[in-house]
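Handoff note, outgoing to incoming analyst
You'll be picking up this chain. Sequence as last confirmed:
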Amino acid sequence: MPEQEDRYPSAGAAGASRVSRGAEGAGSGGGGAGGEVDWEAERRRRRARFLRELAEARALRDRVQPRRAKAARLRHAMRMRTFRW
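Most recent structure output, in case you need it:
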């Protein structure tokens, strides 16, 4: 499953890619900015995908365990009522 490998890269590979990107950016004067923009865009895409999956998992949990979801909603509403702005 290539998606699994993409979702959870090993720490060693991620660290090595960060180091190599940093070395490329430092070595080439003007070319480093394009690489940094690509890295940030990729990070935003991964973050957006993670947040979508997290929201989907929460929605699934709420459908499967409606009593727990209702209790969580009530606790959240109570916190919001007692919070001072």
